[in-house]
Request: fold
Amino acid sequence: MGKSRNTWPLWMLFLFLLAGSMPAGVTAQVRVAEKPMPPREQMKIPPKPGEGYVLLPGRWIWHRPARMYAWLAPVWVEPPRGKVWTPGYWKEVRKGWMWVPGKWENKKRFWNRF
Reply:
């Protein structure tokens, strides 16, 4: 059990890099029977690296090789100019649940919804 705790941050880093290396236009829709729960141990939020950074919350990503969802730890990022982060959410679909991933949206389009 001790070894798996030591490798947990490495797996999260690997998954983060894997998610970042995928082309922006690639999406996957996977349905699961039950909505996964957030991880038992909440990861600590790293300190904010500077002014203007936005916290992307911990979120689920689909890990294709393992054919399962994996939890991606929270991370601070510099937002693209004129964009705002909209978080992902679980959507109930026929015969299960589907994760709708978060994405960067144009600020104008985002605020026009309200």
In short: The two ends are 48 Å apart (CA to CA). The chain has one domain: 1-20+52-114.
